[in-house]
Amino acid sequence: MDRNGNDAAISSSLTLAIDIGGSHLKAAVLTASGEMATERARVVTPKPTKPTAVVEALTHLSSPLGAFDRISIGFPGVVRGDQVLTAPNLGTKDWANFPLCTALSKALGKPARMLNDATIQGLGAIEGRGLECVLTMGTGMGFALFQDGQVTPHLEMSQHPIKTDKTYDEYVGEKAIEAIGRKHWNKRVRRVIALLETVINYDILYIGGGNAQLIDLALPANVKTVSNEAGVTGGIRLWDRRMDHFYETRPGF
Known about the structure:
single chain; about 250 residues; alpha/beta; Nucleotidyltransferase, domain 5; 5-stranded mixed sheet; 8 helices
């Protein structure tokens, strides 16, 4: 057994980790320890972002990466087990109730597990002690929360209004940077950090995602930016036995 209670056969498995974003799809094969066994492959997210087009693009993206035993998927929206419930930055109407795990598992011939993309980013970044919060800055704003390393119920904070006419997604997402520029966007990021510290009282806040590199602030001691690679490498943690309760109703997984 390894430290997560997994047997040796499971511990030696290779995982295809997929990160679905509003602008790009990313994938890499991970070793049992969560290190990249391949380079991270990346392709522009298809437009329009229909589920079948994304599955086809991911199938082509993963093909050159070689062998793997299982699949982890980070999705930008609310997911429950096999299904996507919402996809604000991809087109909720097209994605609602789409069985993405089943579709990718069928296309690639391996079992698949899926969680919100910010949650997976967090699994690749957190230390596992205290109340840890994760934000991802990309097309929109992702959010995840962990207590002593355990995933808490997902809150789609990005869709909550921060102002009367703006959600967090609209306030600090990609379009906000284009509209107001980096300087004013950084002021908004500072406000988001302060608000979340008041509301959540986190011990530490991690900020990842493609636009984390644009942050030009003197961050508080309990706030740190993390590599965007965590959105892929965190996928290995979906197969820890402590995560099995998320998938107990899915026979064969």
